[in-house]
Amino acid sequence: MRQHGRILLLSFYFPPDLGAGSFRSQALVEALMKRLPAGYTLEVMTTAPNRYAQYASQAPAFETAYEGRLTVRRIELPSHRSGILDQSRAFAAYARQVSRLTRGQHYDLVIATSSRLMTAVLGRYVAGRVSARLYLDLRDIFVENLPFLLPKGARWLGIRFFSALERWAVSGAAKVNLVSPGFEAYFKPRYPEQAFTWHTNGVDPLFADSTRGDVTAQPSSFQSPIQNERARESSRRLRILYAGNIGTCQGIDRILPTLAKRLEDRADFVLIGDGGKREALEAALRIEGVPNVEIRPPVARERLNEEYQKADILFLHLNDMFCFSRVIPSKLFEYAATGKPIWAGVRAFPAQFCNQHIENVGVFEPCDSGAAVNALESLELTARSREPFIKRFLRDKIMEKMADDAVELLGSSTKQATAASL
Fold first, then answer.
1. Rg, C-alpha atoms of the chain
2. CATH 3.40.50.2000 domain span(s) along the chain
3. Which one-letter DSSP state was computed for residue 236?
4. CA torsion sign, 207 to 212 to 213 to 214?
5. Is residue 288 over pLDDT 90?
6. Which end of the chain has fewer beta carbons closer than 10 Å to its terminal beta carbon, N or C?
7. What is the pLDDT, as a whole number, of residue 166?
8. Average pLDDT for residues 86-94, to the nearest whole number?
9. Whether the model pTM is above 0.90
């Protein structure tokens, strides 16, 4: 009988890289390290920081922690942008190295956290090759995104191909976590025999701790725009902040040029981020002659928290696509923790989530600048404590539950190994 065990975590993003997937993986690692049985080790295989071309950060290719029980391997990728071909080449480089590094190795459990499906497929492949149980954490429904990612002539074949990969990965997992309850209507009918859990994204303690005790019910120096026309005219300009990716999924290039132009006399927009649609956004702003939008490169979370505190309103937007009707944008948790008014272009499930769980949020139909202006008028420009939301969705607590689910699979594998050795 083996005296020790090994767990492998596959995550394309990991700190110091930015993004929800990176921070989620870090929180999961910390929760797992508190729960691993004696004699077990955890190995993380990820990439060198690569999410944003404008955000350069260094990290060691190999490091250890927890007295050697945790190792992190960061795989160097070829330079790439946000296009699907570039991303495919980058993932292929990651997959080749993971395949090489795991060849001939033993693991009791493989955990894969995946937004674009392929890390889940890689997890299924590695788990099968090393005879390990598989725990999947799915953060998106990639197949539903394909009509917007593939050329028209390749969609039918592409959807069939990736649907087959999804079936192979999901059906081969011992447990599957879905990051949004909105995913249930897609996955349950397709995989009725699979065991699903719903551990969402959550509030980073950095943002929760920095706002507790600072957010009060006292109004800011502004009146709500609908309260008093004269007060609105005499107040200083609104500072509206968007922080995050500027890509196809967010559709910022489709809403902001028109919206900012309509609010040219009332508001200034600050965008902090980068992505595949940044150049398209900049071009559209020039064409529209928009003077009140500033785009800055990504920053570390500590700096970002300072920018949140300077803003009057936090802006969020998802593109006008059906595939975004099931998600919960990870940025919502961050925004909500600040207590600031939230202005969100979302529909269907994410709109329901906003209205059910978050106070002082103005929801509007994506890519509709008229509806956006109406939603802006509904906001109260006050800082509000959202302590019940923070307590319910604190990310560390969510990841503790998710880690418990994963560690339960070790008990099953240990029993199988014991039976096989008798």
1. 22
2. 5-202+395-421, 205-388
3. P
4. positive
5. yes
6. C
7. 98
8. 91
9. no
